[in-house]
Amino acid sequence: MIKHIVMWKLKDFAEGADRATNARKMKERLDACKNIVPGMFAFEVALAQPGLEATYDVVLYSEFADKEALKAYGEHPTHHALKPFFGAIRDERQCMDYNI
Questions:
Q1: Alpha helix (H) ranges present in 8-90?
Q2: Which of 38, 57, 86, 92 is deepest in the core (most CB within 10 A)?
Q3: 34: which residues sit within 8 A by CB, 6+ positions away?
């Protein structure tokens, strides 16, 4: 099984909206990717919360059966369609995939 974790730090203002608004839009769009491919076991999107320590604005935690399932997710049209918006609003992105 592979864990796939991605974190984004967003720009203060992009695409006509502030950071908080874009974070909510990003979460809504990512949530639409849940269960889009076989072999996806877990898929959770969270936003930084006031009062709790956070250095990034949005995090994705997901688990896949294997590399093939993760690759299918990355190539899926629903996931691929997110890239232009995410690229426009993000300041930084960090990703880590690892076997468990």
A1: 19-31, 67-75, 77-80, 83-89
A2: 57
A3: 40, 43
- Is residue 35 within 8 A of residue 85, CB to CB? The reply is no
Contacts of 41 (CB under 8 A, 6+ apart): 1, 63, 64, 65
Amino acid, res. 77 = P
- The model's pTM: 0.94
d(C-alpha 18, C-alpha 78), whole Å: 24
pLDDT in tens, 90-99: 999 999 999 9
Contact 17, 66 (CB under 8 A): no
Among all chains, which residue has been given the structure tokens 């369609």?
Answer: 81
